[in-house]
Amino acid sequence: MSAPLLHIEDLTVHFHTDEGIVEAVDGIQLLVPSGEIVGVVGESGSGKSVTALSILRLIRKPGRIIQGTILFDGRNLLDLSEEEMRPLRGSHISMIFQSPRTSLNPVLSAGWQIERLIRLHKKEKAKGAREQTVQMIRQVGIPSPERIYHEYPHQLSGGMCQRIMIAMALATNPKLLIADEPTTGLDVSIAAQILDLLQEMGRRTGATILLITHDLGVVAGYCDRVAVMHAGQVVESASVKKLFRQPLHPYTMKLIHSVPRVDVDRIMETIPGNVPGLIHPPQGCRFADRCQWVMEICRKTRPPVQTLDGDHLVACYHIGNS
């Protein structure tokens, strides 16, 4: 594993609501090695998107980052002022949000939305910025880039809007690209094209990619490493090969067995129970009520993170007691 470009340690994010404090992200750690594609996977509500927004310092009220460190390229982003953080967004760290059509400005042409980023972050003059914009549109596989430059989001398909978002995210040559469910709302064939494009563009530009998804099939096909989140916590992380060959956390095992496969003759399983509420969550393991190997200590104390085989991390008391 190469040196980490991003190292998150003990990140905790709370949201204050009328019903109580939502512990959306609870003391997670995450390593993103330089030059790799790292997947963050888990059910809806597990804290994946909140983690991504925390990296960019885009958590807004009623949310608040309570504690932790987010080391990016050796700097703790949580120690920076807003003035210091602003130039990092877009130039060094870019993000592709869910629902590309609603993420683009509806009253600006697709090309101008890319061009103004190039002008702002790369300090390019008008002619050079326009040429780079057309070239970026071409690189993400959109035909007739000169014409598309003048098109508005409502004139483009969902897949083309996502390609424009990828072009915007990579136009400034960021070191880290965060892709938050980048294929949401796209049909299967277009989604595969978008993921192929992300992988290709990442290799071409040298960008490290943090890919947030709920789809383990996507993780298996595109990622080098993966972190599994459940109820605001990272319960297991490893290389993709290790995780699929030998999953250690009961939640990871259930996730893998819930994925339908045509090459294996078995019945697709479901995960029993529900994700616990994050207002007054269980004090021990948050998967305890759904786990077939639950022990008394699991309900009382949060399992510590164990490191196995060098870089395979898991938070589970069952490991070593089976």
Structural description of this entry:
The structure is a single chain. With 322 residues, the protein is α/β, with parallel strands linked by helices. It has two domains: 4-92 and 174-315, Rossmann fold (3-Layer(aba) Sandwich), CATH 3.40.50; 105-173, no CATH class. The protein is built from twelve helices and twelve strands. It has helices spanning 48-55, 82-85, 100-103, 110-122, 126-139, 145-148, 158-170, 188-205, 216-222, 240-245, 250-257, 296-300; strands spanning 4-17, 20-33, 37-41, 63-72, 75-76, 93-96, 176-180, 208-213, 225-230, 233-239, 305-308, 312-315. Strands 6-7-8-3-9-10-12-11 form an eight-stranded mixed β-sheet, sandwiched between helices. The chain has a four-stranded antiparallel β-sheet with strand order 2-1-4-5, covered by helices on one side. It is globular.
